[in-house]
Request: fold
Amino acid sequence: MRASKTSSNRMKQGEESPLRSRTHNTSPHRLSEYLDDRFTQLSPLRPRKVSKVSTMPVISTEDYVLRPQNQDDLPHIVAFQRDPVLMRYFGGPVTPERARHRFNLARWHYHAFGYSVFTVLRSSDKEFAGFAGLVHLNFDFSAADTELVICLTQPNWNHHMARELGNRLMRYAFEELEKDRIFLKFEKRDYPLGPVIKRDFHLKGMPQADVKNFDGRTYEVIEILPGLVA
Reply:
């Protein structure tokens, strides 16, 4: 296994604190507007009424539209994250409280940084299809690294559509957000990761994976550079 160029917990030289926006608001909303209690507490959370959230699409493909999450999405997101099949390789199902906590973090992340995990809607009927986007690696706001996340509902497990969405998000990261690298994180499986990457992402080569531990679970983490995107 090869090591990443820099530690995910170390800031790049000259980079501002990740809790100050570099791509969006000059004065990001406080976390307290999005969380009912302390940032690290996982007590039952309810979204607060905060400043108006844009619902304009941020990213679109032939099959999907991605927009910022809003409170109408919360029941879908809670149900998704409680489903053991959908969450099998994404850390496992979580409690409704944890799902709400993640929802609030994703909304705050968008206001603070200008990008986040977005709601995915089918272009044809605007039905909820999952969530996808870019966040700090493992939602660790002290990390300098960016993670690409794609979680789709079972009717959308079409590998062609997932591949199109994944590559569109990579282009968004490199061309619009000007990231110099992003990471994909997969829970460790009993079979090789390579065929999964080739099936779901259109890359020019197969990067090697590092094995890392997050929240007591083992993941394979791969680094994607701009030159790998087909």
Remarks:
- The beta strands are 59-60, 64-67, 117-122, 128-136, 146-152, 182-187, 209-214, 217-224.
- The radius of gyration is 17 Å.
- DSSP finds four helices and eight strands in the chain.
- Helices lie at 74-82, 96-113, 159-176, 194-200.
